[in-house]
Amino acid sequence: MISMIFRKRKHRLKESILRGVFEENLKILGKPPFRISERMPLSAKKISLSFLVILLFILGHGNSLNLPLFQEKQTIASSSTKNYFQAPEIPFALYDNSANLSDAKAFLKIPGVPLSRTFGLSVKTVMIDPGHGGSQNGTIGKMGTKEKDITLDIAKRLKMRLDKYGRYNVIMTRENDVTLPLNKRVALAQSYKADMFVSIHVNYLPSRPTNIIETYYFGSPSDDTTLKLAERENADSQYRLSDFRKIIEKIGNTLKYQESKKLAASIQKSLFSNISKEDGNVQNKGIKTAPFLVLLGVDVPAVLAEVSCLSNSKEEMKLNNETHRENIAHYLEKGILDYLNKGEASYEAKRR
Amino acid sequence: MKQKEDNILFVGIDLGTSRSSICASSGAKEWIESYVGWPKDFISLKVVGRPVLFGSEALQNRLSLELCRPLEHGIIKEGIDRSEEAVREIIKYLVEISRPAAEQKIYAVVGVPADTLKTNKLAIRRAVSEFVHSLMVVSDPFAVAYGMNLLNNALVIDIGAGTTDFCIMHGAIPTEEDQKTILTAGDYIDNQLYSYLNEKFPNSKFNKNMVRQFKEQYSFVGKSSGEIRVELPVDGKPVIHDITNEIKRACESILPAIIETSTEMIARFDPEFQVKIKGNIVLAGGGSLIRGIAAHIQEALKVIGSCTVVSVDDPLYAGSFGALKLAQDMPVKYWESL
Question: What is the ipTM of this complex?
């Protein structure tokens, strides 16, 4: 008798494990759970059908009923329209134009003067920061793809690409799936004396099935969406956004600020111009400022690139393809090199 | 629970960083080293005589081939980046070995290193689905645990080539918190051994492939059962070298990380069940073949109480056997829904 109970329990355990394996694989395919077709009783079918008819009726008259559901929809539509009309004519212009040009900036704007030549220095140490990691998953797509895994994979590929030149010391803030607080990432950049800091992230826009690309550097938030994004990305720090206000005011038009902006523009240009060739629907959100803690602590050009969008199911599927991740790494590499070698005659010649 | 349909061939595949194996319901059982090579040009094609080579044969002809070790996040030193294509070739080859009948459907469960699963889920599915009718992907240590019926209160440590995967089984499909991956595994030993031998015998010539063979033949931890002597050329002349200490140091170099991670995983498990887990620790993967490793880990884990550590009987097939068992136990309605 006891052995029978034991066997039954083991059988049930196995069944639940097998179902778990099946559901995990459904998730990989992006299919909803419980897809096993089971016979539905006629009465249940009738109820579902009537419910569907009522739902269709409500949807058909949604605008006249003015339900809250549609209010949200309208807000999203209007905000996206706003973005569309606000999109800069120059593709990679800034949303934030408040900063005044200093003499230093004017000097740096001399066409054809590469950063390295201006300062008699060259960028030696590039620090790549794969967003999140360990217990901090970042965003998670519908198929279960985690931001932390995608950012790590792209970062590794970017490192391999930059290493090939033999000119840069490329260091990653994390090389494995480990939890790394934001202040430790900053400390790493400082201890390695990084000359450039590139943080890689993946976006999530729950209410919009779109794919967008945007690149940030440190500053006050460009808009409400940016503010929310900064809150999410800063979630691992112990600071509140209000703590940053004073720091932002003090930053002003420093060299780091100017160079971060140029680096962001270069990366954004490379990412968007290349990805838009593969995906005509991808939106260019340009470069923006936002109070990301990870960009604040480093004293060198620092940017945070949102290279893709996990809320978009098609994009999630593509991110599970290594060729797509390799391409993103390639576009990041190109953006970084374009920034570093701008004005360098031999590099410009090769680009042509 | 087993499906008896004659028109279905169930296969379990263990897609490993270093070795891949297959177990099929037809009784077929085979393994290959996870290397794929394509001739570099038409001359190489004439030399090797085939458009694609696998495993040890690919390694032996590596100078004529574009060599790829697909699950090592890309490539080996002489290689090229064709990992997805390489995975497809390995699967095709393994499925052919399982000898499916013409009208037979193939239902496959594929075990892959836990880390690979994170970003390459769809890529692996795509590579495999071409050759099978329905398929499920699971993590390697989970497949091993299922095959050994270790569904509850057990810790499986799968010491592979690229990674060591830890998986706690507690009566449900393991979540991410129940699994951990570290990079100190077989390849790490190879690198350590290579640098120790370079340091000790600077005038001798050897490569990483030779070092890997030394490890596979002589690996041990703890007390040695005798001197390990190998032949290495110096200025073209064969010279016998004693590498006992270097083998021991290299093999033992992975132990601290394994012991630390095991301790951490057991310690964070429900205290009521910790004793049961400590009595049920299983080593799998190629690393479990290192002589004395189970006893050494068992001894080291004494600091957290009495533990029982055993190695699986057949590390080459433990993963694919578990995957086959999963495939056979899986209800048909699940297979058909995928």
Answer: 0.82
